[in-house]
Each structure stands twice: as structure tokens, then as C-alpha cells.
Amino acid sequence: MGIQENIGHSVAERAKFREMKEGTKEDWALIAGEYRAFAKGLPDRVLDHLKLLDGDFGGFPVCRLEHSLQTATRAHRDGRGEQYVVMALLHDIGDTLGSYNHPEVAASIIKPFVTEEIHWICQNHGAFQGYYYFHFLGMDQNARDQFKDNPHYEACRQFCEKYDQAAFDPDYDSEPLEFFEPMVRRVMERPLVSAYAKALDE
Ligand SMILES: [Fe+2]
Ligand SMILES: [Fe+2]
């Protein structure tokens, strides 16, 4: 595509307003169409971003991508469902952009597609994972106790005990990312509940 053609295409496909208050139904029909197409690409963008963790060791015995694959593989082999396994795969995807609050990044990404409990596990796994190392860094090993009355406490404790803290073995035969791709696409195909779900209806 030539530059002129590209510019012409872009101008033709853009809304006319300079402030949102000038927007029209036609503008928003155009934007909604673009949004539907863009939303369909979410699994690809998430998988691409997950690959940024490849080779990123940060001193750990395995890189962050291998840790993610291993966490997901352990959950899958333990009989967990697809929403759970996808959460396990993505639980540390926020390490790149949320270096001080990574669990919240992953939790926000998966929130429209998973149960409240699976979202909660993802959002709060940092404090539960800390049970295995906070005390070595002068922090409170029992930080997770702040959630002891929460109905999801045990589920989050199990996630960390069985899968997350256990997923640093360089000799474990983790499934490759391709194994999980269809699951990511199925889970992220459509939001369970979202103010934007209606906009996806054609
Ligand atoms: Fe984490
Ligand atoms: Fe982790």
C-alpha cells in the first residue's frame, strides 16, 4: 500500500469530531466497528506480551516465561479448568509494566473472562507467594494472614503452594506456549460480564 493510499484510507476511516461532545452516531458506528476488530486481537497481544518474559531470569532458577508455563502446566496436570490454567499462565505477565504491583496487572487483564475467585487468586497471589520468601527479605512472612477471613483465602493458598511456588524447576517438562494458545483464545473470546460486551454484538 502506497503512502497516499494509506493516508486516504485512514482519513476515510476516522471519526469527524475534534472533541467527543461533537460526536455523532456515524462516528461511533465507525469506532465500534474498529473496536470489535481490535478486541478480537486481544489474545494475540497478550500472548505477544507474555513472550517478553522469555529469557528474563531476574536471578531465579528459571526465566519468567518458563515459570509461567510451568505454573500453568502444573495446574493443568492437576485437573484445573481452562480459566484457571489461563490465569496460571498469565499471573506474572505484569512483571514488565507493573514491577511494583505485578499481580494487579494480570488480574485486570483476565478479569472480564474468569470467575470472581480466579480473579481474586490472581490479584492477591503476591501476598500468598510471600509466605515462601518475605522473611528472607525482612518482610512479614504472614502477610497473607490479612486475608484469613476471605472466602478465597484457601484457594489462593493452594494456587501458590501447589503451582506458583513450585514452578521454578529447570528440569520440569513444561508444556510449550503453543499448548496453551487455544485455551487463551477460548477463554478470551468473549467477556463474561462487561459494560463493553454489548458493543461486541454485531
Ligand atoms: Fe507473581
Ligand atoms: Fe509466579
Automatic annotation (TrEMBL):
SUPFAM superfamilies: HD-domain/PDEase-like. InterPro entries: HD_domain (IPR006674), OP_Dioxygenase (IPR052567). It comes from Qipengyuania profundimaris. This is HD domain-containing protein. Signal peptide: none annotated. The lineage of its organism: Bacteria, Pseudomonadati, Pseudomonadota, Alphaproteobacteria, Sphingomonadales. Coiled coil: none annotated. Pfam families: HD (PF01966). It comes from the Bacteria. Residues 64-134 form the HD domain.
